[in-house]
Structure formats: C-alpha cells, structure tokens
Amino acid sequence: MDFTGRRILCLGDVMLDRFHYGRIDRISPEAPVPVVRMGENRAMLGGAGNVARNIASLGGEAVLVGVVGADAAGREVTALIAGTPGLVDATTTCSLRPTIAKTRIIAGHQHVVRLDEEETGPIADAEAAAIRERVEALLPGCHALVLSDYAKGLLREDVVRHAIGAARRLGLPVLVDPKRPDFGFYAGATLLTPNLKELRAAAPGPTGTEEELAAAARALLGPSGVGAILVTRSEKGMLLVEAGGGVHTVPAHAKEVFDVSGAGDTVIAALALAVAAGNPLPRAMRIANAAAGVVVGKLGTATLDIAELAAALEADAPGDGGIEGKIAPSPGRAIPVIEAWRRRGLEIGFTNGCFDILHRGHVTMLQAARAKCDRLVVALNTDDSVRRLKGPTRPVNALEDRLAVIAALGSVDLVLAFAEDTPLELIRRLQPDVLFKGADYREEDVVGGDVVRARGGRVALIDLVPGRSTTGIIARSRATAG
C-alpha cells in the first residue's frame, strides 16, 4: 500500500483546534464547577485542515482550499500548514470573519468544556469567487476532490456545484463529508460519508436495524444523485451502499477509544487516498475503518502514518489457523468463508493453476496478486485434470501435497481443487471480485473474466518471472539424470 504521488484537493471549513490538558483536583469555592490545573497546550489544524494533514501523514499530498481570518488564529493556521510536509496552502484570507477556532479543556481523558469562536454565515461573494478560481486552477493534476462540510459557511451552493462539476469534467472522484440533511445538495458526488445521526436526519424511513439502514441509504441514492453512501456507525463499524451494487459492512476496528475528535476526517482522508490509488470502494472502506481504529486510540485530532495503517490492516488479517484450516474440501465449504469475508467489505481475489512443482515464479505471482486484494483464493487442478492438460507423466506431486504447499504460503488465504479443465464453473460459484492471471495472457482471453466483470469486478494480469516454469524444471532434471 503506497499513497505516494496521490494528490488530493481538500475544500472545506478550515479550523484551528486548541487543546489544553490538565487535571482536576477540587471543586471551585466560587461555584460548583471543577478547577482544572492546566498543563500542556497543543494546537493543530482542524476541520478540512485535519483531513489534509491526515492525507499528508499517510504519504499523499493535500492541497488545502479554504478561508481563514486576518487574525492571530489565522496566522497560527498558516504557520501550521507551512510546517506540515506534503500540505499545500491554498487558503484565502478574509478580513470580515474570524478564523474558526475550537478550544477544548481536557482533564485526564475527559472533555470538560469546549469554547468555539466562529462565524457560520455564508462567505461573501468575493471570497466565494476566489475559492472557485482556486479550485479551477488547482484541480488539474489532482487525483480526487474532498469536500469537508462543517456547515461553517464556506460550502455555499455555488461553490459546491462548481467544485463537483469541475472534478467530474476531469474524471476525478468526489468524496463528501456532509452536514446537510438534503444529500441532493452534493449531487454528482462519488461518495458521501455521513455518520449515523446525519444519515437518519436525511433518511425517509426507519433505520433501526442494519437492513433498514441499508434500505434507507439506498432510497437516498437516486434522488440525491450521488454514487454511493458510506455510513460511519461508531462502535458498530461502517456500512457501504453502492448505486447498482451491493451492500458491504465492516465491524469497528478500534480496541480502545480515547478520543473521537477528528475521526471522521481520518476516514474521508483514507478513503480519498485509497480510491485515488485505484482501490474499489469496499476495500477503501476497510482501509478507512482501520485508520479510524488507530486515531480514536489517540488524544486530540490525531493522525496516523502509513506504517500504523499497515499494522492495523495486518492485525485484521486472518490468523495462523494452520495449513489444514486454509484448505477447503469442496466449493460448498469455501463459499461460506468467502461470503463472511465479503460481508466485512473485503475484496476477494482468485487465481488458478496446476502448481505442480512450486518455484519462484509461482511465489512471486501469488505475492503480487495478494497485494492487490484483501483475500486470495487459489484453485488447483485435480490430478486427472492435470494429466489431461499436461500429459500422462504429470503431475509430479499429487493433489494432496500441492494443496498443502500452496496453503503454507502467507500470501494465500484459501485453497481448493477443481476437476474440470477450466475453472469457469468454480468462478461462477465463488463470484470473486478480482481474477488474476499471468501477463502471458490477454485480458479478454482469461477464462471467467466476463463473469467477474459482469458483477463489477476486474481482471488483473500479473508480470511473470522470466525463465521459471515447472516444465523447465522437469526438463532440466531429466537432462541431468540422463
């Protein structure tokens, strides 16, 4: 997973988040309120600024477009942007409104009070025109657009319409963290990321159960003119509903929750990078869910780096259940495993072959395939099938041994056999999201490619290691023996 070179334009309400940490020892004699003995003070970018710094901390580049005031807080925001590698300052200064600032007093891990300094009316026409000009000039060269709406006045209707239209003309995905109950305000967006409260405010029906929530989200898709809705549900995880596609869920990833400040910013930052890097939405959801699980375990509007994200994703990978636990005795036994993965929003990859004598080419190909999906299923030809394809002297290794060797690889999550000459029927039953084959094939010639593409999946060709093949190994062995 590498987000290097992914450039995201972040348009939204830029804030200054101040945190004052202390401890409570007593109640004030002047009034029945706690006395906080102040300790450490911290300031960081908030709102759209926190989205941008999350993008930068994950290895991407963020272009931050917003409004700050001509005041001390605005100068502090400018300094914070300048001091953040990977963050490009495209903010504009307005002398008519203050910089949005939120000051939190925290004792231990408990928020005692929050002080807000802000003007929430719409920005003036001059500032709106300046924002539109900056978006128009900076979007080319970007890989996605994020709208971070905190309902603080920046995202007027004309600004939103212009930004979404400009991005779609360039073929860029548009991801929106919405604050308005009318999702049609963001028509044309690729993905909205409301939390449960925001979805319920916009939904036309009940949302008590997961099925009702999915139905409510789907009912909003057509009228709102957006492509997908991802609902963040705190301890219940995330739910993704795609127009014309399926419903995907993933459980919450956090082990401990210290502070949820800015978790939504982390979610949309990770989503934007993952989508910009070519990941389908279900896998992008899993990546964002893992990222959120890390930051809620930190204090303040926190960020994470790519190593922390990779570790969180690895922790969510299947544990070592032994070789036998990865071998499915039949397709019927494999399907429930695959469906359980799919319900968690995981992307299922599939490849097949004889895998008679395992060599470097096999291992490299399987590792490359696993890097492009969340779970990799490998199907092996039975012994009779290999004989029909390769001749009466093959296979060298019996099916039982071949299954065990492939299952022992860390890049393989599930292995099974098929008796037919091609895996077409098995692909129809398993319905993988990605079909992998060696680059010596043409994409249109890959068996089962039409089945996978018909359900919105893709075919991926993997580069081969030159000069490595089972046939070559056997030929060299015979030549040596002779």
Beginning-to-end CA distance, first to last residue? 47 Å
Largest sheet: 6 strands, parallel
**Fraction of residues in helix:** 25-40%
- What's the helix count? 16
Mean pLDDT rating: 89
Description:
With about 475 residues, the chain is of the alpha/beta class. The protein contains 16 helices and 20 strands. The chain has helices at about 50-55, 70-80, 125-140, 155-170, 195-200, 210-225, 265-275, 280-295, 305-315, 330-345, 360-370, 385-390, 400-405, 425-430, 450-455, 470-480, and strands at about 5-10, 15-25, 35-45, 60-65, 65-70, 85-90, 90-95, 100-105, 110-115, 145-150, 175, 190, 230, 240, 245-250, 350-355, 375-380, 415-420, 435-440, 460. The strands form five sheets. A six-stranded parallel beta sheet has the order 6-4-1-10-11-12, sandwiched between helices. It has a five-stranded parallel beta sheet with strand order 18-17-16-19-20. It has a four-stranded mixed beta sheet with strand order 3-2-8-9. Helix 11 (about 360-370) links the parallel strand 16 (about 350-355) and strand 17 (about 375-380). Helix 8 packs across helix 9. It is elongated, with a radius of gyration of 26 Å. It starts with 6 loop residues before the first strand and ends with a helix.
Entry summary:
The protein has 482 residues and is an alpha/beta fold. It is built from 16 helices and 20 strands.
